[in-house]
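Technical annex B. To support the medicinal chemistry partners, we prepared a structural model of the target in complex with PRP, based solely on the information shown next.
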Amino acid sequence: MALHIINHPLVQHKLSIMRNKETSTMMFRELLKEISLFMGYEITRDFPLEYEEIETPLQRMNAPTLSGKKVVIAPILRAGLGMVDGLLALIPSARVGHIGMYRDEVTCEPVFYYYKMPENKDRLVIVTDPMLATGGSACDAIARLKRDGYTSIRLMCLVAAPQGVKAVQERHPDVDIYLAALDEGLNERNYILPGLGDAGDRIFGTR
Ligand code: PRP
Ligand code: URA
């Protein structure tokens, strides 16, 4: 399925500030929220509408209202949490699930530790995680959602390496990917280059 790169100038400008190692935790978190709102605008662009007759103070009209699947935002912990508030500002009625996983520092393989999603599987799931590096975490998170019965899934990341995009496209060709930037590659520790460092640590100020 499609790879969407949101190259809106405001998104690119804000992302450049986030990449700068001098940017504070407070600013990093705020910018991630702002970019998530812009990306949410694009991720919802094809949402279907239906027409409902309403009465304005002047006359009757057929007014467009959203008609598609309801939304679940599913952040991959921890860093994916930083993208939730921006999306909720756009889709305040969305449910929020949680997928707990971290990347083992030595093997770089994802390790699951928590999973909680709404019971109704007939929803569109927007998986959020700022970093798509090897793609292992996103691929396993999406596989877990599919095993649970979700069939309509989109992946929203901030920065990706080509390897991560390829991994998701090969393992989950039905999942559209939304990015703010496709970077050059990975270093020997599977960090994205040029990237922005460890997103979880920068959001939560843990290093
Ligand atoms: C980071 C990031 C992704 C994952 C990406 O999480 O937020 O979940 O690594 O790497 P991958 O594509 O190679 O799997 P991390 O393990 O650092 O956990 P954290 O969010 O709790 O800091
Ligand atoms: N996780 C991060 O937070 N950053 C990277 O560059 C790769 C994985």
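Notes passed to the chemistry partners:
The first strand starts at residue 3 and ends at 5.
Residues 25-43 form the longest helix (19 residues).
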